[in-house]
Amino acid sequence: MRRQLAGALGALILMVAPVQALAEPAIEFLGRDFIFPNRIEGMPARLSDFPGLEINSFTTNDGVKLAYWEAGEGESLIFIPGWSANGAEYINVMYLLSRRYHVYVLDPRNQGLSQDVTYGSRISRFSMDLKEFSDHLGLESANYCGWSMGASVLWGYIDLFGTGGIHKAIFVDEPVSIYSHADWTEQERLDAGGMTTSAERMVAAFTTGAATNTMIVDPKAMQRFAVRDSAYFVNSEAFAEAFVTNDPTAMGRVLFDHATNDWRDVIRSKIDVPTAIFSGAFSNNLPSQRWMSSVIPDATLYDYTEAEQGDHFLMFKNPVKFASDVDAFLKH
Fold first, then answer.
1. pLDDT attached to residue 316
2. 92 close to 239: Cβ distance less than 8 angstroms
3. Better-scored residue on pLDDT, 231 or 3
4. Model-level pTM?
């Protein structure tokens, strides 16, 4: 009888314990330490220099195990990575912002440390995953930051669930509509950020390296990814490459759906919270980010210069400025 009571009490404790109690230190989850290639003053020299970093997971209502990274205490700040990205790439951003915030990075299905599955490869399902993640954490309100495709996931979340659970929103360099419609004027294309005239060709180029040209797909983002002119970026990419194995086939399943969504109606009419938008001089998305900032009522555009690494990967190439700007925006 005593054993049964002890078992029942243990089950009750598990039911009422905070979800964060099951998190595992990143160095234990990953199985070893990691030394970053570049020594940067004020940043970790190795993974063990970031002792508060943890990795956890939860299971969605359609049975997919999603991993997430977390660190820090205070007001919640949730990052949604872009296509093919993962929490490991946020190591510098998390380290800086976790001094003031409880920072989370959710690895989307088929990306990072999350499970690869053959179903649910739609932005709407990714948005539902984000909603279930916030419910899993028990958050009534949080700040959300979507980068690249992660911004589309956040737009889908707002479209489906509104902004009631969003304190402030941050969008980083994502076209409003990747697909460029044939009947658009050039100004409409610039305002939307249209970057391909063939979703199929874009998917093939991004997942298999198939030949393309600038008339079909805008290659600027991938060209800037190849430019490793930031020691921060070299460190975070090396860390991700050491622990994350990408499956291009699994990741590619969502890309067609992602490319063919047009979010102009959501951006015009459904975003009613303070919003920060990040882009820069090295990004062909800058005109569309300016359009966004002009139609969202309480929006601030952060336009990074070339010297400030103002490209699609600005938050990873210049994490110190990005973290400072995000902190100032959230505290304003």
1. 98
2. no
3. 231
4. 0.92
| Eight-state DSSP code of residue 104 | E
CA-closest candidate to residue 95, choices 33, 38, 56, 51: 51
Nearest to 221 by CA among 121, 82, 112, 86: 82
**Position of tokens 């959710």?**
106
Going through 267-324 in order, the beta strands assigned E by DSSP cover 275-280, 299-304
| Amino acid found at 272 | D
Mean pLDDT of 105-118: 98
Of 288, 292, 263, 265, residue with least CA distance to 276: 292
pLDDT mean over 82-104: 98
Separation of alpha carbons 145 and 71, rounded Å: 16
CA nearest to 53, candidates 74, 34, 70: 70
Amino acid identity of residue 139, one-letter, is L
Query: Per-residue pLDDT for 253 more than 70?
Result: yes
> How far apart are the C-alpha atoms of 220 and 206, rounded to whole Å?
12
